[in-house]
Amino acid sequence: MRSDDLQPGTLYWHDDFASAAQADQWFSALQTECAWQQPQVKVFGRWHPTPRLVAWYGDSDAAYRYSGQTHRPLAWTPTLSRIRDLVEQQTGRRFNGVLVNYYRNGHDSMGWHSDDERELGPAPWLASLSLGVERRFDLRRKGSTRIAVSFALKHGQLLLMDGQCQAAWQHQVPRSLKVSGARINLTFRHILHPASYD
Ligand SMILES: O=C(O)CCC(=O)C(=O)O
Ligand SMILES: [Fe+2]
């Protein structure tokens, strides 16, 4: 399925990327395989723990700067490497890194942003796999506060954002007190210009 109403920018959903059984297995493998961290981020001059756990995996040269720090990629785990192969086959695109997010419950979230860091180049494609409990995903046009599109991210679903989405749109995964379960999200990226280390 593809979006027609987000011009410029197109989203593609592959609802049956993974069966429920496969997605369950990946979820539990990644829960234990990943080296989860909770970095601090500075918001309006004050430091806060990010409201989710994260880890950055990738090829050895895929240094990525986000939340104010350069992150050295951890080496692909067997599960992440297998999923990357399948994502590349499904999308026909290459990815050399994956940001892994762990939303422990509905209190965890990701605020409004675009994935437009300079490392990703001017027109980055992103492939995002959802595992675990359903969460809402919102999009708004840059410069607007009105949510334009909102949908559920489902267990085993792969969402592909094309190279125009980040320049024109922001997205978020809002807090939801109705959600009690956990979710893991894998966002595959292609680092074109590796960051330097501080
Ligand atoms: O959890 C999600 O589905 C979104 C993650 C995201 O936007 C990101 O990692 O940049
Ligand atoms: Fe994002």
UniProtKB/TrEMBL annotation:
**What cofactor does this one take?**
Fe(2+)
Query: By what name is this protein known?
Result: Alkylated DNA repair dioxygenase AlkB
Domain named Fe2OG dioxygenase: residues: 94-192
Example GO molecular function: catalytic activity, acting on DNA
The UniProt entry, under InterPro entries, shows: AlkB-like (IPR027450), AlkB-like_sf (IPR037151), ALKBH3 (IPR032854), Oxoglu/Fe-dep_dioxygenase_dom (IPR005123)
Keywords assigned by UniProt, alphabetized: Dioxygenase, DNA damage, DNA repair, Iron, Magnesium, Metal-binding, Oxidoreductase
Pfam families for this protein: 2OG-FeII_Oxy_2
Entry-linked PANTHER family = ALPHA-KETOGLUTARATE-DEPENDENT DIOXYGENASE ALKB HOMOLOG 3
Among SUPFAM superfamilies, the record links this protein to: Clavaminate synthase-like (SSF51197)
Biological process (GO) annotations held by this record are:
DNA alkylation repair
